[in-house]
Write a structure and sequence with these properties.
333 residues; Pectate Lyase C-like; 3 domains; 1 helix; 0% strand; Pentapeptide-BTB/POZ_domain; 5peptide_repeat; Pentapeptide repeat protein
């Protein structure tokens, strides 16, 4: 079928074109709202600025197609193949993208507000500046999660997104907005979260081993039982964060703001806390083996039963702190 015939038949009221084979078709700006193209072959098609709102493209082949600026709001793309597709500025708000293959797709400035991306593969995709507010990417079952490995999410807006169990290993989230997002049990190994907004974000049981959190804002974040060994978090803001049972072994927290945090039962073995600000933090039963606390401010902290025996406490401010033996430190004594 030729593109012209498709448009004419659609204009005459026909909408069901399941299984249509029209690779490389030129459908620039075509008005195909609500069309049924499930299992269609549209690989390499030119659909720039096309109107495909509420279209059914489930299981469709859209490999290397160009949908830049197209409107696919509330469209069904379940299981569709969009590998290496050009989707710059595409509108996919409220779209269903379950188990969709978007490997290496270009989604710069894409609108994915409220989209359902559960089980989709976005590994290596470029989502720079994309808006994914309220998107659903949560892991539905074990070993079946949304894949964003090595994806570029530089300055992407992911506020309030459900990313429970998502694979973000080596992803670029520098400058991204992840405020109040759910990243529980997410894989963020070696991810770049420098200068990211993680205020109020749920990161409990997340894997942040080797991640870069330099200058990130984690105010009031939940990091309970997170794994954050060998991470870079210099100058990061953790004020008021809940970090009980977190593993911060060999992590760089120099100059970080950890005031009013709850770090009870945390492992800070060999952590670099030089110049860190921990005023009024809860540090009950924390393990500080060989930790560097040079010049850190631990005033008014609670260090009950914490292990400071091998820590470097040079120039540490312990004013009014409750020491491991339960006594209040007073420098004037």
């Amino acid at each position: 079928m030729k593109p012209k015939e498709l448009i004419e038949r659609y204009s005459n009221g026909e909408i069901n074109f399941s299984g249509l084979k029209i690779p490389g078709a030129n459908l620039v700006g075509a008005d195909l709202i609500g069309i049924i193209l499930n299992e269609a072959d549209l690989h390499g098609a030119n659909l720039i600025f096309a109107y495909l709102n509420r279209a059914n493209l489930a299981q469709a082949n859209l490999v290397a197609s160009d949908l830049s600026g197209a409107n696919l709001s509330q469209a069904d793309l379940t299981g569709a193949d969009l590998r290496s597709a050009m989707l710059h500025g595409i509108i996919l708000s409220g779209a269903i993208l379950q188990e969709t293959d978007l490997t290496l797709a270009m989604l710069l400035d894409a609108n994915l507000i409220g989209a359902d991306l559960r089980g989709s593969d976005l590994s290596g995709a470029n989502l720079t500046g994309a808006c994914l507010r309220g998107a659903n990417m949560r892991q539905e079952k074990k070993n079946f999660n949304t894949n964003l490995q090595a994806a570029n999410l530089f300055k992407a807006d992911l506020q309030g997104a459900n990313m429970k169990g998502v694979d973000l290993a080596r992803a670029n989230l520098s400058g991204a907005n992840l405020k109040e997002a759910n990243l529980r049990d997410a894989d963020l190994r070696k991810a770049d979260l420098s200068k990211a907004n993680l205020t109020g974000t749920i990161l409990s049981e997340a894997n942040l081993v080797g991640a870069n959190l330099t200058g990130a804002d984690l105010n009031n974040a939940n990091l309970v039982r997170a794994k954050m060994m060998q991470a870079e978090a210099g100058g990061a803001n953790f004020k008021g964060a809940i970090m009980t049972h977190i593993n911060l072994n060999a992590t760089n927290l120099s100059g970080a703001n950890l005031s009013f945090t709850r770090l009870n039962h945390a492992d800070l073995t060999r952590a670099n806390l030089s110049g860190a600000y921990l005023k009024e933090a809860e540090l009950i039963e924390v393990f500080f083996a060989k930790a560097n606390l040079t010049g850190a401010d631990l005033s008014n902290t609670n260090l009950t039963r914490s292990d400071l025996m091998s820590a470097n406490l040079s120039r540490v401010n312990l004013s009014e702190a409750i020491m491991p033996d339960g006594k209040v430190y007073n420098a004037r004594r």
